[in-house]
Design a protein that fits this description.
Elements (H helix, E strand, L loop, with lengths): L1 H17 L18 H7 L15 E4 L5 E9 L2 E2 L18 E9 L20 E9 L4 E7 L4 H6 L20 E4 L2 E6 L2 E6 L4 E6 L3 E5 L4 E4 L3
Antiparallel strand pairs: 1-2, 2-3, 2-4, 4-5, 5-6, 7-8, 8-9, 9-10, 10-11, 11-12
Length: about 230
């Protein structure tokens, strides 16, 4: 018995001397709620964008779950410079338009836009106003667009996606990282992506479950994300 007690005391002394500790899970611990999109964009340090560059004029990335692709790029007269989709951005006819910094994102799995967030009647073209895309300019964020067929993101990572193509080769923006280009900033967090013009108080958040459109410095929030 004496040896057993001595052995226990020796073991306790050894643990104390070596600084070992044991952690137990607190059953009452509740993780803090994710920050609002604008606060997330303000607080997280900016990541070097060199590894995310997709040419001199575009920074592009995918989310960690491969559900979202974003291009921090530019627009001329509504024509977007996207590295993973054919477009008419470089046509000479667009030279008359001003170049505007934008962020354009596409989702593989997404929710439909709410009726009050549909901003275009598609000019009687027969095109549908569909979800799955979001566009941020320095002044506003818009979810959905007029289109027919699937986006490049849907064709690669949607329900019938090929899992191969230009988007599959893009780098990942890791959870919790921010990247900034031309005054616009994006962050992968809370299982989605937030992008915004922090100084202008305009932003969006998108994920599989829904979307938020933020304006007025965070005072106005539209969308269906909880």
């Amino acid at each position: 018995m004496r040896r057993t007690v001595s052995g226990i005391l020796a073991a306790l002394l050894l643990l104390t001397a070596t600084g070992c500790s044991f952690a137990t899970k607190d059953p009452d611990y509740v993780p803090p709620a994710p920050l609002p999109p604008l606060e997330q964009l303000k607080q997280v340090p900016v990541t070097e964008q060199t590894a995310l560059a997709a040419g001199d004029d575009v920074t592009a990335f995918v989310s960690p779950d491969r559900n979202i692709v974003c291009a921090m790029t530019s627009s001329r007269g509504g024509h977007l410079n996207l590295p993973y989709e054919p477009n008419t951005y470089s046509d000479a006819a667009n030279n008359k338009f001003a170049i505007v910094p934008v962020v354009h994102c596409e989702l593989a799995h997404y929710s439909e836009p709410r009726a009050e967030d549909i901003t275009d009647d598609c000019a009687a073209t027969g095109l549908g106003y569909l979800g799955g895309t979001v566009l941020l300019t320095p002044e506003k964020a818009v979810y959905g667009s007029c289109r027919s067929g699937v986006t490049q993101m849907e064709s690669e990572f949607g329900p019938k996606g090929t899992k191969g193509g230009p988007i599959s080769k893009l780098p990942e923006l890791a959870e919790g990282q921010n990247v900034e280009r031309n005054g616009l900033r994006c962050s992968a967090y809370n299982d989605g992506v937030a992008c915004g013009n922090v100084s202008g108080g305009v932003a969006f958040f998108i994920s599989r479950e829904g979307y938020q459109l933020i304006s007025d410095g965070g005072k106005t929030v539209r969308g269906n994300a909880k």
